[in-house]
Amino acid sequence: MNLRHFRSFLYTLAKFLGDVQAVKSGDPKKMSKRVGRRTAGKATGRMLRKLFK
Questions:
Q1: Superkingdom, according to UniProt (predicted)?
Q2: Which of 16, 19, 20, 45 has the most C-beta neighbours closer than 10 Å?
């Protein structure tokens, strides 16, 4: 396992732990914020990828 794979694993783990933390809080407002931000981030990433490709 090289550094690139290890870093990718850590980012994935952090993203998953953030999801778990939002769900564990039990607050629907926090969960919906999390979903909204993840969706907005993915859309922004796709737009930027197309722009700079």
A1: Bacteria
A2: 19
